[in-house]
Amino acid sequence: MKQLLNQKPIILLISALLIGALLILPLVVTNPSLMQIFILIILYAYFTSTWNFVGGFAGVLPLGHSAFIGIGAYTSTVLFQTYGISPWFGMLVGGLLAALVGIIIGLPTLKLRGAYFALATIAVGEGLRVLVENVKEVGPFKLNGPSGISLPLTESAFMNFQFDSKAPYYYIILIMLLIVLLLTYFMMNSKVGYYLAAGGEEPEAAEALGIKVARYKLIAMLVSCFLAALGGTFYAQLMLYIYPKSILGLDLSFEIAFIALIGGRGTILGPVLGALLLRPVSDLTRIYLGSSLPGLHLVIFGLVLIVVMRYYPKGLVEPVKQLLERFIHKPARDKANNQSNPSSRQE
Amino acid sequence: MALLEVKNLTKKFSGLIAVNEVSMSVEEGQIVGVIGPNGAGKTTLFNCIAGAFPPSSGSILFDGQEIAGKKPYEICQAGITRTFQVVKPFASKSVLYNTVVGAFATTPHLHEAEAKAIEVLKFLDLYDKKEIISKSLTLPERKKLELARALATEPKLLLLDEVMAGLRPSEVTEMLPIIRKINESGVTIVIVEHIMQAIMNLSEQIYVISFGKKIAEGDPHKVVADEEVIKAYLGDEYVATQH
Q1: A205 lies within 8 A of chain B by CB
Q2: ipTM surpassing 0.85, yes or no?
Q3: Which CATH architecture has domain B4-79+156-242?
Q4: Which member of A11, A331, B115, B149 has the lowest number of beta carbons within 10 Å of its beta carbon?
Q5: Domain ranges in chain B?
Q6: Conformational region of residue B27, where left means phi above 0, alpha means psi within -120 to 50, and beta covers everything else
Q7: What number is the average pLDDT over the span B146-174?
């Protein structure tokens, strides 16, 4: 906490203003479709931030995170549908289940490097989607294969995780995002963060310095999968309808990875920036071109990714930061120049 | 009792015997050199001690404990830290960050690790470079960073794998006092090196390895006069012409 408050006052002020503005946004924006777009931006920033624990810090590129989001969404949904268990509790169960699956998958795959890890995670993600599409029911739980599950509608209440207006959804996901960003911050400034970065960059050197690289990567995987699944439950409650292609498919996994890579993986604000830039693109193409050119947003993302990787391989967060810094420091520097100029003239 | 006691260590790679029944012992506070022609098995011996490969047979006692076959991170935690011949900095991170990673071996708290790292960087004259991203360092600086990171783990025994390889003669002469300074601060050192000037200058005791076998050991001046050693380095004819 001390470190957090040790930042420059101007940065603290800007963040406080930003968070304040985000908190009063629902009071200003009343249009539910517009609110939905904002909620989705925050949700994708959340998804990408959870992805960031593995993809940003552990030095690998996961391309199957939809599996864990899907596990979260399906777990809370079937528990609610079958037993009427509150989705809040289902969220937790889904998170734990996803963390468990994450460890089982992480144990063999996190040893793989580069493209091999990416390929393995694609296989897991797609495998799970195909599996769910072909399963009508598991024990008492109805999954309904490819047609998916419509959540039973209930009255608008906190315990049911269903609300008439968009504002509660907005606040819930905003708080979830802020918590994940704080977690990311604390992790980056702790032993775990340093060890993850070291193990991701030079595993042999890291081991020689006493780091059990595999264990730290597993910790990252566990945290990432748990948190991603919580987001999955939120998605299910927001949409009230889930089907394998929407929440388990490669599209979602790729979109998360695109947002991270374009925004800046391994940074705190990269996922937020990426979501802010890319989500509107995907919403607008879906609204206006969804029927004629479905999936166009991924093509656009691909093009943007190529350009960004060519000029800013670390993502857009770096140039944006520099721009902001120039903006913040410029008045101070001008003042300094004005003060030094008269004295030089006197000499 | 010796700090490091290697007994009859053998490492085979599918038929090739890289290290053959080598024994050595290192007393606390010593600088011990390991030399030998290219491909003699020096680095393999090193890798076995540091845990990069499990030895095929033999034993390695450190501080009285058997460490043969343990993982690199366990061996580091036991008190042996190595550097790499081909330096491996965390390239996208600053010099300070690199050193803090090492210092986390001694404490779980960031501010303590940072204090330790800064102490080590000052000790090695790298403090002014602490904010520089390590991939933009020069080679001698990278070698020093490799030392800094290793020292930050507070090892009892430091294994240096050709820290001077690739350096210019003037840079080698700069490096020698640094290594001696590290030793004087209480760290026992085993050093593998090609540069004879360096190793003759530093070591109290030298082991010579050729084709995986130990062919000589002892005082540096005695060792370089040894017939077997001259043969290994220069060939049979040179021994003949000396007589």
Answers
A1: yes
A2: yes
A3: 3-Layer(aba) Sandwich (3.40)
A4: A331
A5: 4-79+156-242, 90-154
A6: beta
A7: 90
